[in-house]
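User: Hi! I'm working on a homework problem where we have to compare a predicted structure to a textbook description. Could you give me the structure for the chain below?
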Amino acid sequence: CLGDYIYRIQDRKRVSPSGADLGLHGEVASLSEFRAVVFHSLLRDDQGTQYKLMSADVSNAYLHAKPPASMPSHWFEVDEKIYDLLPEALRNEVDRHGGPGQALIEMSRCLYGHPVAGHVWIQMCRAELTSKRMGWSPVPGTSSLFKKGNSLVAVYVDDIAAAGPESELNDLFEKLAQAFEFRDPACAMDEFLGIQVLRRDRA
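Assistant: Happy to help. Predicted structure tokens:
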């Protein structure tokens, strides 16, 4: 519910400026980087076992990310659709500040549709992958491609694609699941960003 992420409701006249340049930058993986992950899955380990190709979808990814302290206050308008979803206590608070179409909610979490939300989320995901706990390293010259051991992982918004030995991928997704909630457990990839993936073993 949106009520879980509301920080404060204020009158429209008290809205803070959004700020044009917040110094935030986080690029998603390119199609070439996704292809690199797929091609990497064609490799085999020393025992001749083909690498696994797996994917997972982070649930409500942007809501995991909090705007940085340096970011000015941002607000969204409470329209009728949002108003109907709010608990009664919050609807009463909205009514006290002008009602739907007038009251605004200050964002304490990033929301889909906000122009900087994607950048904040990607920066957060990148920081998690490259943390000491996880130990992944950015691949030089790429937007959002990372490597560790014999594995590669690419991040495209809330979709994560990875290829490598099964044990390394299991470790990757187990640790990511400790930080983020997945819609479903990571599994063998059969589709990614609308692209169907079909693997055949020709050994």
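For your comparison, note the following. The longest strand covers residues 52-57. Residues 56 and 185 are 7 Å apart (CA to CA). Good luck with the assignment!
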